[in-house]
Design a protein that fits this description.
Helix content is 39%, strand content 15%. Strand 1 (64-66) and strand 2 (72-74) form a beta hairpin. It contains 15 helices and 15 strands. By secondary structure, it is an alpha/beta fold.
């Protein structure tokens, strides 16, 4: 914990509020350790039960996490808006930033011409009564999903993939329920699960997706929902194969108590076929975002599912945000219908695949095992994340520490290839190999 910040309060609400204030102001940074329960109780002259209740509330709200002997610490990205000074620091000056997980802006389609065309033909403003899922977008989405084997009779749109997943979890589960998530998995999803007061159960991932044994164990532990990344899994690049999909469908069959959520965030960028699990359980949803292929600022995802599940999501949106902007929906439809945009997205997918495969090959040549079957990320298992991240930073490379993405999985670092020029592939691989090479003992030997 930051030495200059003192937690205060004599009730559990006041203590948890003091900790939240520290997080919001940046005095308690991500990863900061909180005092042990008994130590803080003695300092504040309150009972240990009072402090324990405060910490429990903070855990249920996703602000802190407790990890055995490591104690209670502020989560990497707690769900509270911090002052700008407390935001994630930029990469070290002079380094090549491969830590962000963003698509290459040079390969995103230009939006200006489509916005101009839309402005010329948009017609009279839309009112509250007519705002909903745009019929032409829904028809195009059904056609695109059906081509990939996803039944899309029922469909709605949400403000991006994570918004759709949040609405799905909130509609089906209650705080304390268990959710099976990939481990390592998407950091934003892990943070969302914590913020909703849900209990994550880590499911190991290999190159073919969540393992059958891992899913079986999660079901035995009482998982009420399972979230699976179809392709370009973040951070490992895994993609569900036909064999794995068949095994998981058989395992999930006849589970009326389980909500199945599939996240196909890579969509058109993925260079492998989709093998969906859609329909394996009575309650299911398939979410496809447009952010990776067309731009992160396009906050829209298509959500297909069974009738009851889609109705819950759409109904909850209706009493909250209402709808996703029909202007945004029409812009996405224009991008889908533009052959030049489709060609650009295809070239982007080929570029990511080329850079990723070249990095994997260079790492393998240096004796470094790594994973990255699809997508824009490569996952490198490491003995220690701090040592690896620091060594790479000193060599001029900023990568993401694996702690952001894992529950019980082994340590690793995530390298995003979208910001990696092909000329830098071999130098980066050499730097990784050096960072993982055991230090040579100094001094004389007999």
């Amino acid at each position: 914990m930051a030495a200059h910040y003192q937690i205060s309060g004599t009730t559990s609400a006041a203590i948890s509020g003091s900790v939240e204030t520290g997080i919001r102001t940046g005095a308690l940074a991500a990863g900061a350790a909180l005092p042990a329960v008994r130590a803080l109780a003695a300092e504040l002259a309150v009972s240990p039960a009072t402090v324990a209740r405060a910490y429990q509330e903070l855990r249920q709200r996703g602000l802190v996490a407790t990890a055995g002997r490591h104690g209670t610490r502020v989560r990497p990205r707690p769900p509270v808006a911090a002052h700008r000074s407390a935001l994630h620091p930029p990469p070290a000056p002079g380094t090549c930033d491969l830590s962000q997980g963003q698509p290459d802006p040079r390969l995103l389609p230009p939006l200006g011409p489509h916005l101009a065309a839309l402005a010329a033909e948009i017609g009279p403003p839309t009112g509250y009564a007519t705002a909903a899922v745009h019929p032409a977008l829904a028809a195009a989405a059904r056609e695109r999903l059906a081509a990939d084997g996803v039944p899309a009779t029922e469909i709605t749109v949400t403000g991006g993939a994570l918004d759709g997943i949040e609405r799905l979890l909130a509609a089906h589960l209650r705080p304390g329920d268990a959710v099976a998530v990939e481990d390592p998995g998407w950091a934003n999803l892990l943070d969302l699960v914590a913020a909703l007061g849900l209990r994550p159960i880590g499911v190991p991932v290999d190159d073919e997706g969540p393992t059958e044994a891992g899913v079986r164990d999660a079901l035995a532990l009482g998982a009420r929902a399972l979230v699976v990344t179809s392709r370009a899994q973040n951070p490992t690049g895994a993609a569900v194969t036909a064999d794995r999909a068949g095994a998981l469908r058989a395992l999930l069959a006849g589970r009326p108590d389980l909500l199945l959520i599939e996240d196909d965030h890579a969509a058109e960028l993925a260079r492998v076929p989709l093998h969906p699990l859609a329909g394996a359980t009575p309650a299911w949803a398939f979410v496809r975002s447009v952010s990776k292929p067309y731009g992160p600022d396009l906050r829209l995802a298509v959500l297909a599912g069974d009738e009851a599940t889609v109705a819950r999501v759409a109904g909850r949106a209706r009493v909250g945000a209402g709808w996703v902007s029909t202007v945004l929906q029409r812009l996405v439809l224009a991008l889908w219908q533009d052959p030049a945009t489709a060609e650009l997205v295809q070239r982007a997918g080929e570029s990511y695949e080329r850079r990723r495969d070249e990095l994997l090959a260079a790492l393998a040549a240096g004796g470094v095992p790594a994973h990255g079957r699809t997508g824009i990320n490569v996952w490198v298992p490491v003995p220690g994340e701090t040592v690896a991240v620091t060594a790479l930073r000193d060599a001029g490379w900023s990568v993401a520490p694996g702690a952001l993405y894992r529950i019980g999985a082994g340590p690793g670092v995530r390298i995003t290839v979208s910001a990696l020029d092909e000329a830098d592939v071999v130098p980066l691989a050499d730097a990784v190999a050096r960072a993982l090479r055991p230090a040579t003992p100094s001094g004389f030997t007999a």
